[in-house]
C-alpha cells in the first residue's frame, strides 16, 4: 500500500518535469528560429558595392525592358518576400499573379501544411521543393532544369515570348551580389542585344537588375549544400486557360 501511494504521489512531479522539458525545448527552438531569422536578414541586406561588374540597377536599357509585356505582367502585382527565407514561395506567388492567378499570402501556397511552412521558415526551400509547390497549384507543366549551358540558357530565355511560359531561377548570390547565399527570383525578360537577363529580385532593397547571362549561368552552376545537387531553374508552362 505504501509503495502504491508513493508511486501515485510521484506522478504529478513527473508530469511537471516533463512539461518543463517541453517548455525548455520550445524556448530553445524559438531561440534558434529567431537566431536564424536575424542571421538571414543580415545576409540578405543589399550591398550594391558588392555587385559584380556588369550588373545594371538603373539606366535606359533596364527601363526599356521593364516596359516590355512580360515584365509588365509581373509588375502589376509584384511583391517582395515576406520573410528572409521565403524567396521561393514569393517567386512562385509572383509568377501566379502574372498569370492572373493571384495568391493573397505566401503561406496560402502550402495549402494548410503547417509543418512544411515552418520548415521553410527555418531553412528555406530547395529547387525541387519549390517545383513541387508549383505543381501542387495545378498551374500547368512544371519542370526542373539543371546543367544548362550558357547557350541552353540563352535559347530558353529567347522563348520567354511563348504564351504562359515563366522561369524561376535558383542561384547562389555570390557571383552576382558578393554574398554566398542561395536565392530564388523570377525572370522578367531578356535583352539579346546586351545579352542580359531582367532579374526580378524578390528580396526588399535589391530591386530589379539586368544581369549578364554568363554571370547568371555561373551562379546557377553552383551546388546547393542541402541537396548536394546543382542549382538551376524551374520552367513553368501554364495551361491554355491561364496563358497570356
Strand percentage: 15-25%
User: What structural class is derived from the secondary structure elements?
Assistant: alpha+beta
How many distinct helices? 9
Radius of gyration: 22 Å
End-to-end Cα distance, whole Å, is: 80 Å
What would the principal axes of the Cα set say about the shape? Answer: globular
GO molecular function, one term: glutathione gamma-glutamylcysteinyltransferase activity
Pfam family, one: Phytochelatin
EC number: 2.3.2.15
Protein name: glutathione gamma-glutamylcysteinyltransferase
Description:
It is globular and about 80 Å long. A hairpin with a 4-residue loop joins strand 6 and strand 7. The chain is an alpha+beta fold and 244 residues long. It contains nine helices and eight strands. The strands form two sheets. The chain has a six-stranded antiparallel β-sheet, sandwiched between helices. It has two domains: 1-44; 48-238, Cathepsin B, Chain A, CATH 3.90.70.30. Helix 3 crosses helix 4.
Layout of helices and strands:
Layout: H1 2-44, H2 60-66, H3 69-75, H4 87-98, H5 114-123, H6 127-136, E1 140-146, H7 150-158, E2 165-172, H8 174-177, E3 182-191, E4 196-200, E5 208-212, H9 213-220, E6 223-224, E7 229-230, E8 232-238
Antiparallel strand pairs: 1-8, 2-3, 2-8, 3-4, 4-5, 6-7
Keywords: Cadmium, Membrane, Metal-binding, Transferase, Transmembrane, Transmembrane helix
InterPro entries: Papain-like_cys_pep_sf, PCS-like, PCS_N, PCS_N_sf
Protein name: glutathione gamma-glutamylcysteinyltransferase
